[in-house]
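Hi there,

I know you've been waiting on this one. I reran it after we fixed the sequence typo, so this is the corrected version. Both the input and the resulting structure follow.
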Amino acid sequence: MRMYDLLEKKKNGGILTKEEIDFMIQGYTHGDIPDYQMSAMTMAICFQGMNPQETGDLTLAMRDSGDTLDLSGIRGIKVDKHSTGGVGDKTSLTLAPLVSSVGVKVAKMSGRGLGHTGGTIDKLESIPGFSTELTMDGFIRQVDTIGMAIMGQTADLAPADKKLYALRDVTATVDQMALIASSIMSKKLAAGADAIVLDVKCGSGAFMKDRKGADALAEAMVSIGRHAGKQVWAYITDMDQPLGNAVGNAIEVREAIETLKGQGPEDFRKLVLTLGSRMCIFAGVAKDFDSAYALLSEQLHSGKALEQMARFVEAQGGDPSYVLDEKKLKIAANVMPLTAKKDGVVSAIACAEVGMASLALGGGRETKADTIDPEVGILLHKKVGDAVRKGDVLAEIYYNDDRKGEEGLKRLEAAYRIGEAAPEKRPIILGEVKG
C-alpha cells in the first residue's frame, strides 16, 4: 500500500477503506508518511469530503494511535460531557458534581484555555491547593469512590489528532466537517466513557457561527458515536452572548458554586440541568428527561450537589472551604465599570470580543507558554434584551494591571450594542441531535 495511491484515490473522489485509513494514520503518527503527503490528503478531503463510514474509521484510527483509557474497573456506567468551547463556559465545574451527586460516574479529562475561550483546568486551579496531576490509578480510584474526578489530558491520548491538527492549522484545512468531528471524537472515545453528551456551541463566540454548521457538526459527532458503539447525544446551544454573567477564572468558579447553591444565572442553570438530565438517563439513574430534571433541580436546592463539589475539591488537594464560601476566592481588587452611553436596549453582545477583553486583562493565553492571572475577569450586569438607561452599569472588569485594564475596557465597550428595540429572545437550547 502506498500513500501516493491513496492521494490519487481521494483526489478523484474515491472512498477510502478502513485498512487504507489505518495505514495512513499509523504511518503518519510514526513518521513514515511525511507532512507534505498528509497535507495533500487533508486538502483532498476538504474538496472531496468523507462519507460517514470514512469519518468513523478515521476517528477510530486516531483514537487507537496512542493510549486509550480502560475505565472498566469503575463500577457503573461512565458518562462524559464535551463542549466545543465558548465564552463564560464553566459548565463542567457545576455539571460534574451535580450529576455525580445522584450516582452518575464522571471520569473527565479536561484541557487548558487558549485564545478567547477558557479552560476547565485553569479555572479549577483558582482554588488553593487544587491539582489535576493524578495518576491513572488514583483517577480511577477516585471516580469509583466519590463518583467523579477531573484530570489534565495525557500526552499519549490520540497523538495522531495532535499531530494532524497542528498540520491542518497551517495548511488552511481546519474547517472541514469530517476532520473537525473526528478530531473531537477521537479524544473523547480514547478517554473511555460509555456514553457522551455533547454541547455544540453556536453563535458569534463559538467555532460554529451559524446553525447550519452547528447542526452538521452535531450530526457528524453523533454518527461517529454510533459507529463506535457508544451512546452519544448532542445539544446545540447558544453562544451569541457569554454563558452566564461571569467571564474569567476565579470569577467563573464563584458563579459555578453559586449555581450549585440553587442560585446563579438562569441561562447557565438551565444548560447544566439539560445536559445533566441526559447524562442521568444514559447512566440509568432516571427513566426520562422530566424526572431527571426534577431530580437534579432538587440536588441544587438541597445542598447535596454543593457537598459533592466540596468532596471532589478536597479529594484533589484543594481547600473545600472555598466551595462552602465562594467569596473566599480572590478576585482582583481594581474594578472599572462600563456604562451605557444612551437609553435603549442591549441588542447584541459580540461574544468573542468579550472573550478577547478577558484575554487582554490576563485571564487567558495567546500562546501555550503564557501565564494566566486567575483574579481578573468580567462580570456582566446587562445582557441581550435588557433595557438600559444612560449611565447604567453594563458590566464591570476586575483587573490588576492598569494598562491591561484600559485595554480590556476598550474591548468590552466594543462588544456591546445598544439599540431601540429588543431583539427576538434566543433560547439557551437551540436544538438537539438524538443518539
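Quick highlight: The chain has a mean pLDDT of 94.

Best,
R. S.
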